[in-house]
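ugh ok fine here u go
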Amino acid sequence: NVEIPETFVDYSENPREYSLSAVQTVVRVHTRVSDLYNGPYNQLEEQMRLTIEGIKERQEWELINSNKFGLLHSVDPAMRISTRYGAPTPDDLDELLALVWKKPAFFLAHPKAIAAFERECTWRGVPPVTTSLFGTSLITWRGVPLVPCDKLEIKSRYHSNQWLGTTNILLLRVGEADQGVVGLHQSGIPGEIMPSLSARLMGLDSLGVASYLLTLYFSYAVLTDDALGMLENVEVGFYHDYENRKTKVK
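structure:
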């Protein structure tokens, strides 16, 4: 008789609870404006649209930089690596892919960091392949797209404002089925006009100004530590000197 091995599933007795964050603002529109100037554009709808765009910009910043749940503060210490020479090289992104090797979805980087990576690829003669995603052309590395996001801030910029400094590049695996990064929201809230976004009339004041409260609830969870990796100390202001480049001797 062969004894069947036994095992158990380790779990946390006090798991982390994720509470939804909220971005709120008030839109005020005078009733005279909405009554008399609704052609050719609906004034209330346009005010709402522009305000919602601003709310989503703030949401994107919070998802990246929030001290409570931001991506930059959710990376496990074992999933952080630094660039070898400062500028983001193909070798650096390969090292990042070696960390998040299970179904990596996309890199997330500042546009200046992507430009710095393209310069390193050009210097080495390995231009990255492009692909179409979200209706726009993006470069890829090893088949993984690099998605630009200006909410990944650049630190230690020079006074000349030439966008010189350092930033970070993130690599994500997404989706609940793959134990990746998943977004959290609350559907079915009162006054919902978009998923997790509500608009409620607060009332009219004595001057005839209508006030609307816009609220957006959001958060996300990193289901496993290896779903999120980060390349740190990425310099974005280095340029190669092609005129004085040494040629290889055959």
